[in-house]
Amino acid sequence: MKKAAVWLICFALVLGKSNVVAAHLPHVIEKAVTVVKRPEISQAFYADLEGEAEIYRIVSARDFFLHVGLLVPDLPHMRKDFLVEILSRKEDKWEQLSLLDGNSHTWNKFFEPFAGDRYWQGPEISKQVQAGEYLVWVSNPDNEGKYVLIIGKKDSFKLSDLLATIKRLPQVKLFLAKNPWTAYFNLMGLFILLAVSAGIAIILLLYRLVKAKL
């Protein structure tokens, strides 16, 4: 059991060195307006335009580093003509902060090793912004098609985020037209297996230590 804990630590270090652990916290979106919490944390919003544009609202009480990027699943007949308009509220009006145009961008294939999925990588922007309210407006001429909106770049190592990722991965696989059971046949599944083994080892070790003192 002690070996499992050692292997978990070693595996986590390897993931960190290879940037695999920097996987985005996933969200599967089913509504037109989404409030983005903790916009500096790396998050992926999986969505499908169904006749209307989709809006992501950010409100921050402090200055923060804004990163917005666009991915499209590497599936047949996926469209890439998305527009991502980023608006900043100035007093009583909205001003355009940036515009990401999928039509004018050269898309490149991208493999995400942590979950084992393939995407087309589109335009992105990163910049320091002031505290305030922002809107990220995603659309295309017909308001149809699947996309993944990336917001934030900072890695999160909170246990709650890890558990949320584990829970949502089957939904992500369904979004990507895959069997949900494949959600854990990858580095994520190996990490979970090692984490569970290490957790059991730690519990047993603590139990033995407490029992020895009684």
Task: Explain what this protein looks like in three dimensions.
- The strands form 2 sheets. Strands 1-3-11-5-9-8 form a 6-stranded mixed sheet. It has a 5-stranded mixed sheet with strand order 2-4-10-6-7, with no helix packed on it.
- A hairpin with a 4-residue loop joins strand 8 and strand 9.
- It has one domain: Jelly Rolls.
- By secondary structure, it is α+β, with helices and mostly antiparallel strands.
- The longest helix has 27 residues.
- The chain is built from 3 helices and 11 strands; from the N terminus they run H-E-E-E-E-E-E-E-E-E-E-E-H-H.
Question: Main traits of this protein?
Answer:
214 residues, alpha+beta, Jelly Rolls, six-stranded mixed sheet, five-stranded mixed sheet
What's the order of the H and E elements? HEEEEEEEEEEEHH
Number of helices: 3
Q: What fraction strand?
A: 35-45%
Helix content: 25-40%
In short:
The protein has 214 residues and is α+β, with helices and mostly antiparallel strands.
Furnish the topology, listing elements before pairings.
Layout: H1 2-17, E1 25-28, E2 33-36, E3 43-50, E4 54-60, E5 64-73, E6 83-90, E7 93-101, E8 108-112, E9 117-129, E10 132-139, E11 144-151, H2 159-175, H3 187-213
Parallel strand pairs: 1-3, 2-4
Antiparallel strand pairs: 3-11, 4-10, 5-9, 5-11, 6-7, 6-10, 8-9
